[in-house]
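hey all, quick one before standup. I had two proteins in the batch that finished overnight and I want to keep them in one place so we stop losing track of which output belongs to which input. First protein below, input sequence then structure tokens straight from the run.
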Amino acid sequence: MGSTLSNTQHILIDYENVQPKNLAALGGHPVKVMVFVGAHQSKIPFDLVEALQKLGESGKYQKISGSGRNALDFHIAFYLGDLIARDPQGAFHVISKDTGFDPLLRHLKENGVNVQRSRDIAELPFLQISAEQSDDEKLKAIVKNLKGRGQSRPRKTKTLANTINNLFAKNLSEAELDALIALLEKRGHIRVKNDKVSYRLQNP
């Protein structure tokens, strides 16, 4: 067993199942990221490669050896167990839409492991923001998240509203979302025309 990495968020991404476009949002957080790539996946988007490189030693790929049904899932399960043994106080996140992980994760939870499955990076609890914050605090967090998305920022107001609501654990009303989008535009961070959004993100 290695030394405890207390407070580390371990993120294991099922890249066959989910191709995240917002990996840059993890910057500045105490994370360890492993992207599991299928044996026949030969191309990785530049934005993902760049975001993972920026994490330095905290980000790595794991290309699986061999193919077959659930081959990648078994690799994730193995590395998840190894990480839990090395850092029992850490938090563990499997990024996948595959519900097949859930019985294993439920068993781990019953044994005191802080683990969960999320369908997207944006659903990670430590990235979500309290709806009780001031508008300025909310705006700062939204702008930081949007900057981290690079070329994958929402291009329509409805998608932008959904993205913002996900950051607040879906606790904002439609009126609150409209007000935040209006504030983003008023502060010069975005421009909205015919429901299409363009960006000029500045420091909040």
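OK second protein, same deal, sequence then tokens:
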Amino acid sequence: MRLGARSDSLGSSEAARAAERPVYLDNNATTPVDPRVADEVLRYMAEEFGNAGSRTHDYGQTAKSRVNRARQEVAEVVTAKPDEVLFTSGATEGNNLAILGLAAHGGATGRRHIISTQIEHKAVLEPLEQLARRGFDITLVPPTSGGWVEASAVRDALREDTLLVSAMAVNNETGVIQPTAEIADLLDGHDAYFHVDAAQAYGKLIEPLRNPRIDLLSISGHKIFAPKGIGALVMRRRGFRRVPLEPLMFGGGQERGLRPGTLPVSLIAGLGLASSLALKEHASRTDRCTAILTEAIQSLEPLGVIYNGDPARSAPHTLNFSVPGVDSEAAIVALKDIVAVSNGSACTSQSYEPSHVLTAAGLADAQVAGALRFSWSHATDDVPWADVAARLHALARP
């Protein structure tokens, strides 16, 4: 990969090994760290290592200043205010805090109904299962066969006692963009809070995440070329009222008492810079991803591939498809020396269970079993699509 290669700092054997590795096409699982971000992280690990909570000396003040700047950098991407950004370990923690953190308010107000979708990440579905065990009423809206949830279905499920609507911005398996703007519009005038899991969209789709009706927005650094272990939950105020979240952990006053613990300044600095770069380079990154998508579709079309999710409604960095007669596990093995791909979410790939996302869309069992997810970025090297197509064609032959 062009991004992160840093061949100038590699030994000759390491550089040779990097050149021989397959092209990485699993960016929805994680992205490489941008070298500029890595340098920023290292600086705040090795040089400016102060604790942002230390008020009595320059080391602490420097750390605090960088944390505050990172809040501004994250907020700017989604047009929020810096004090509406709470740093977390990633979107999973953000999702848990957004969903479980509202439970006490729901119980106190008698609003115990929550709407979400059948195609959410497990980091949303499993917290919802916990609330169901506590007596909350959960409605999961099914997707269309094209992979998106109709906003009208959310509207039809809305009730007076609905506490929360939670819907992802871009599906992690199919890349299909969900109608968050339409859902936000239909919630106008309703008290329900709107949470968006933006792990696959933050820094990649700009305008949809800037909708002021989105109350809670979860992001992960490692999806936008920052390190693993850092993310944020954006909590927009309604006028002067904050979302009434309760903490899930206790032990300090950091992050307005909602997320205790010493702030990882170096990781926060990395997330801040990665956010700034994503916004600044958005147009060129999108153009590069779109070019790769176009080439992929042209190369794979002769195979008679079946797209799992409408490509016309998908983000330009993801393509999920099945080749008739080809099992995904066999395809991954056949391709492993030229491209690194997956057959679904990294969080559930070890289970080898059918994709709950594709199953919810009503796709045939064979189509689900053959699903391959290719995901790239602006930094992806040229993909040997002709070789990919040839390998898959060989598997498909009787």
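Flagging for whoever picks this up: Residues 58-78 form the longest helix (21 residues). Residues 38-279 form a domain with the Aspartate Aminotransferase; domain 2 fold (CATH 3.40.640.10).
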